[in-house]
Amino acid sequence: MLGELSDRDRAILTLEAAWPRHGGMKEETIRAQLGMSPARYYQLLGRLIETEAALDFDPLLVRRLRRLRDARAGQRTARMRGFVG
């Protein structure tokens, strides 16, 4: 449910959802708005999209991010198989 998300969690999801509408460097925006490094942001975002609370908060965003993550994982696996072959 929505109550399970912290203010920081909601801010991360809101920034990620709004990003295509913003110009400039995403890393600078992460630091300025959230006060964290981009590495930490992506670490938290990766964990966050696995939660039901995040899915309840913004289902379209979370499903899109999960699809992107899964596609990247599939590409990495395919590359690794090509090298091992």
Largest sheet: none
State the share of residues found in helices, binned by percent. over 70%
Counted by DSSP, the helix tally is 5
Mean pLDDT: 88
Number of domains: 1
Structural class: mainly alpha
Cα separation of the termini: 45 Å
H/E series: HHHHH
Beta-sheet strand percentage? Answer: under 5%
Uncertain stretches = none
Number of strands: 0
Alpha carbon gyration radius:
15 Å
Q: What is the global morphology?
A: globular
Write the layout of secondary structure elements.
Layout: H1 7-18, H2 26-34, H3 38-48, H4 52-57, H5 59-84
Give an overview in words.
With 85 residues, this protein is mainly alpha-helical. The chain has one domain. Helix content is 75%, strand content 0%. It contains five helices and no strands. The protein has helices at 7-18, 26-34, 38-48, 52-57, 59-84. The chain starts with 6 loop residues before the first helix and ends with a helix.
